[in-house]
Amino acid sequence: MYVLFEDAGKFFAGRLLTEADTSLQLELESGKRQKVKTANVLLRFNTPTPDVVLAQAQPLTEAIDLDFAWEVLGDDEFSFVEFAKEYFSADASLTEQVAALQCLHNAPQYFRRAGKGRYKKMPADILRLALAAIEKKKELEQRIATWSHQLVSGQCPPEVAEQLYRILFKPDKNTPAYKAVVMAAKASGLPVLRLLQQAQAIPSSFQFHWQRFVLENFPGGTGFAQLPPAQIPSLPEGDVAVFSIDDSATTEIDDAFSVRGLGSGTVTLGIHIAAPSLALKPGDAVDQLARARMSTVYMPGYKITMLPEHLVSQFSLDEGKSCPALSLYLTLDESDLSIKESQTRIERVAVQANLRHDQLESWATEETLCASHWDSSTLPAALKTVVPAHLAFLYRLARHLHAKRIQARGRPEMNNRADYTFKLDNAPGVEPTGQERVTITTRERGSPLDLLVAEAMILANQTWGQWLADVGVPGIYRSQAGLGKGIKVRMGNRPLPHAGMGVSCYAWCTSPLRRYVDLVNQWQLVACVQNGTTAALVAPFKPKDAMLFGVISAFEDAYAAYQAVQRQMETYWTLRYLTQEGLTEFDATVIREQLARADKLPLVLELAGGLSAPLGQRVRLKLGAINELTLVASATVAERLETSSDGVFADTLEDDSETLPQGQGLTIAIDSAMEEDANSSEDVVKGKAESAMMSPTALI
């Protein structure tokens, strides 16, 4: 005898072995023996076998008219046997009873379960909704199948194109568009990116990289909500006229200088930092925006500011304005440049001039800045409002401070590579499309103006960091335990030495308009100015404050992501430049096995062809294929050139820790079985992260 029974909402059949009062011992088709409660038994039969019964019942099940059955059945509960007798005949066969059971079980929208083998028909309104939902699901599945077929055949449906980047990087896996892409990838056997490229779904490599970054780091968009202007408190006017030194593209001017007392034997140097902390408070609406971003994001032709533009313009030290500032005044002996006294004030300062590198660098050479007299007729127009002697004094001080730091470091800093400036022909503030014309210009590191600004900022950051420690107010510091390989710069709340910079402690304080860490430290410094030795009691952040540690962790994550996108975008525009200028050959230097760095472009390439060349060998490369999506370009050696001297190349190698290809692939957020990775070659250009060998301008 065979028994059909229900277990956990599913139907099984087995051969009866033994039977007790309340249970049966059955042998299933698989050979497994199972104990079944008598109450779970639905049918008993001798012939035919269960597999034959199920095969014979299947066509009957499919032929049952559910709408008709629902109409003729009453509102009371009924068993599947009663349904079979009502639908088929009073003498319903075993096969018909099994067909009735399968039909009822497979149509929960028509009949709900009311017990073992018992059912009750659904109310009309619920049935209507259920059928509408089923029809909608069928239509959706058909739409997904249609879109999938279009993708496989090389066409991208508009519905997929509209959601393309979200599908790739931040998908909702329940959306039809996502399911269509997954279905198409499975059907075609192609990796997702290749499938989408064949369907011409990715119109722009630039947008691919840009949208990936935005979706991962700015899921709510890069714009700001409407916020009122900040309320700036009344401040005393400082009796100094200050000037800043930046490149021409800088709009967030957060540092400036003043010099007084030249020729008197005692000089007062003023380092003036924009003070948004005077109007912003921890936890307010603007602070929450800044904390979410942590830093301004820079890339060729565009930037995403940490603070709304109207607030940046309120506090930026722009020429012709009287601006709130946190001012560090250092009293120095003019002869030996020793610091006699330091004082910090909160005030307004009159900005006399915004000097620009490109306007001054041809004049501001080491020879010129070391002179004692200057021909007024040869002075750049930008120096009509700034005394050249002030720049000369700042440069003299910078050389003095730099020499002291190098002595503390125990080895010189390496400034043997160029910085590169990217300029696009897009309008200022307009997001690039990726099709703009790009100009790449070279600027040697360690110019006199670079040194002048860098050393002044390092001095301010060291002085203010030490002051916070002396007063007992916590701050956010950067430290490095040594100069050995692999010893990285760390962030924390303890004033530890920074071996890479040769200073006893270092706290970022000089860029509060573009770095959240600097804004936090400025809040702490303002508390010190206003409250002196009792500042620790009223400072916004207390020792061992969990929020302070949270800021450190979040900043490091955001800053790393922002540096990565800067490198990616600079690599993208460098590859665009190669295509734009029609460059097929260029000179490079072998920096590692199978890797060479272009001499006049910010690009590291992997060499094809198994070149065996010593490190430092200069070569002429023949450019191969360029893939702007994976940011990879291939190259082969066309010619060996004169080899660099060992000493020069040794310096170059020391600074390669972040300029070599990092091996980061293009991983998309689609089913892991379909992810496509491709190694990309990147070169860090103007990276902001500190390391022991970086130039002073990258350390401020």
Structure write-up:
The protein is an alpha+beta fold. The chain is 36% helix and 23% strand. The chain has 20 helices and 24 strands. The strands form seven sheets. Strands 4-3-2-1-5 form a five-stranded antiparallel sheet, with no helix packed on it. A five-stranded mixed sheet has the order 9-15-14-11-10. β20 (585-592) and β21 (595-598) form a beta hairpin.
Strand order of the largest sheet: 4-3-2-1-5
Mean pLDDT: 86
Helical content band: 25-40%
Number of helical elements: 20
- Assign the structural class, choosing from mainly alpha, mainly beta, alpha/beta, alpha+beta, or little secondary structure: alpha+beta
Give the DSSP E fraction (strand runs of 2 or more residues).
15-25%
The low-pLDDT segments are 646-664, 672-700
Key terms for this structure?
20 helices; alpha+beta; 700 residues
Would you summarize the structure shown here?
The chain is an alpha+beta fold. 36% of the residues lie in helices and 23% in strands.
Produce the secondary structure layout.
Elements (H helix, E strand, L loop, with lengths): L1 E6 L2 E10 L3 E6 L4 E5 L3 E5 L4 H14 L2 H7 L5 E2 H8 L6 H12 L5 E5 L2 E4 L2 H29 L5 H5 L1 H6 L6 H13 L3 H7 L6 H13 L19 E10 L8 E6 L5 E9 L10 H9 L3 E3 L2 E3 L4 H7 L6 E12 L5 E18 H4 L5 H4 L18 H22 L8 E7 L13 E7 L3 H24 L5 E3 L10 E3 L23 H16 L3 H4 L7 H36 L3 E8 L2 E4 L5 E4 L10 E10 L4 E9 L5 H9 L46
Parallel strand pairs: 9-15, 22-24
Antiparallel strand pairs: 1-2, 1-5, 2-3, 3-4, 6-8, 7-8, 10-11, 11-14, 12-13, 14-15, 16-17, 18-19, 20-21, 20-23, 21-22, 23-24
